[in-house]
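Problem 12. The chain below contains 94 residues. Write out its predicted structure in token notation.
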Amino acid sequence: MNDVTFKTTPPLGTVIMLQGQRYELVATELYWRQDGHPTVLLCWQSHCPDCAAPFSVKTGLRQRYLNRRCPTHHKSGVAVVRSRKVVYRRGHHV
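Solution.
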């Protein structure tokens, strides 16, 4: 699993390294769930390991999977790297 879990909204600029791939938090968005409750979406920017093109991905505070490639090279279920280590930076504790 590529689990990413935060207890609170991390500050903009937070960087996570997932299997050697860098993701930077560039924005947050208020999102209204179908049950009427508000939540926060985290907008991450990374670079495709296949072509180096930048791409964005949105997640909640808890996410079991992060897209690793740009839309052109997206390969559902195909791993980029086999490591499962997630590193959080900028002093944000989860």
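Discussion. The longest strand covers residues 21-32. Students who got a different answer should revisit the alignment rule from Section 12.3.
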